[in-house]
Specification:
This protein has 2 domains: 5-244, P-loop containing nucleotide triphosphate hydrolases (Rossmann fold); 248-317, Alpha-Beta Plaits (2-Layer Sandwich), CATH 3.30.70. The chain is built from 12 helices and 14 strands. It has helices spanning 62-69, 91-97, 113-123, 129-142, 158-169, 188-205, 216-222, 240-245, 264-269, 292-306, 320-328, 332-337, and strands spanning 22-33, 36-47, 51-55, 77-82, 85-86, 98-101, 176-180, 208-213, 225-230, 233-238, 251-258, 274-281, 284-289, 309-317. Strand 7, helix 6 (188-205) and strand 8 form a beta-alpha-beta unit.
Length: 348
């Protein structure tokens, strides 16, 4: 994938970019919808050129936070600056500095790929028409859609349509690209294609990318730094590697036994190197240990001595799922099930 040639020159009407090392600065920002505290006194900063992620369940406040940073909804309290501009007092300057890829597909299905980009460029005041066509061609090439320039958007696959959305968000040469759940609803191959594109945008254009996701593997693969969000607050922020290293126990064993017995968790907990044991139900146990292979061998020997069958046994390294459980006290699926209903958006 090639970088877009227009990236070096901003289109007419764009504001001057900030020059500090931080492109997003958020201090104690909050948002309340009636009785629902969607975002609760959140503070963080994003460095220029990094891929920054918000990881959390649906209903955690991720999308509301992005909507405040992109000037779509005003904060109830606190402040935020994007590319040096206040999101409340300098909304037009913020909008010129950002590209936004919402979770829902918003490209016009009855326009061609090229037309979707040129119409967007015209809205940003890009002139003349030949310049709009040039930028559209370079961006379609950058997202590997140049051969589909005359195809209607509605004829594209889900992954292609998402790449078109990303190209459209880059038309005005933004300093930062916000992506809200960029791969939700895509098949595995399309997800990988979008991941590759996101990484290439940072590598080839030095673009800052800010994404939200509830996919642990996506956050782990893409993000330089990651904030875990739960119930409207950031509970921890660091690199994925540092977050995983902060969880006690270097490995997780999942074992299903037959028959089960009431003292199983306590007896497993006395095995060498085991830190914690959690009964998952239906005779399944989650064992956190400092020494995965050795603990697994010890578990097999213990089961044999007790005349207990191990129906299944797996050993895994610490994952972001374990990080989420460690810092929030519950799993991602449980968090999504207990999340409050999202507030209705104006006009819907």
């Amino acid at each position: 994938m090639k970088s877009a040639p227009h990236a070096a020159a901003a289109p007419a009407g764009s504001g001057a970019a900030g020059t500090g090392s931080l492109i997003v600065e958020v201090e104690q920002i909050s948002k309340r919808f009636g009785s629902l505290q969607a975002v609760d006194r959140v503070s963080f900063a994003v460095k220029r050129g990094e891929i920054f992620g918000l990881l959390g369940p649906n209903g955690a406040g991720k999308s509301t936070l992005i909507r405040m940073l992109t000037t779509l909804v005003p904060p109830t309290g606190g402040t935020a600056r994007v590319d040096g501009h206040d999101v409340v007092r300098e909304q037009e300057a913020v909008r010129m500095a950002i590209g936004v890829i919402p979770q829902a597909m918003t490209s016009d299905p009855d326009l061609t790929c090229e037309e979707n980009l040129t119409v967007h460029a015209r809205l940003y005041g890009m002139r003349p028409a030949s310049r709009r066509l040039e930028v559209a061609a370079s961006l379609l090439e950058a997202v590997d859609l140049l051969d589909r320039r005359t195809a209607l958007a509605k004829t594209l696959s889900g992954g292609m349509r998402r790449r078109l959305e990303i190209a459209r968000g880059l038309v005005h040469n933004p300093q930062i690209l916000f992506l809200d759940e960029p791969t939700t609803g895509l098949d595995p191959v399309s997800r990988m294609s979008v991941w590759t594109l996101i990484s290439k945008l940072r590598e080839t254009q030095g673009l800052t990318l800010f994404l939200t996701t509830h996919y642990m593997d996506e956050a782990d693969k893409l993000c330089d730094r990651l904030a875990i969000v739960d119930r409207g607050r950031i509970v921890v922020l660091d690199t994925p590697a540092a977050l995983k290293a902060s969880v006690p126990g270097a490995a997780v064993i999942e074992a299903r036994i037959d028959p089960d017995w009431p003292e199983a968790a306590a007896e497993f907990g006395r095995l060498d190197g085991v830190r914690t044991v959690t009964a998952q139900g239906e005779a399944l146990y989650r064992i956190v240990t400092d020494r995965g292979p050795q603990a697994a061998v010890g578990l097999v020997e213990f089961a044999r001595a007790r005349h207990v069958a191990l129906q299944s046994l797996s050993v895994q390294s610490t994952s972001l799922d374990d990080v989420f459980v460690h810092f929030t006290g519950r799993g991602l699926a449980e968090a999504e099930a207990s999340a409050p209903a999202a507030p209705a958006r104006p006009g819907h």
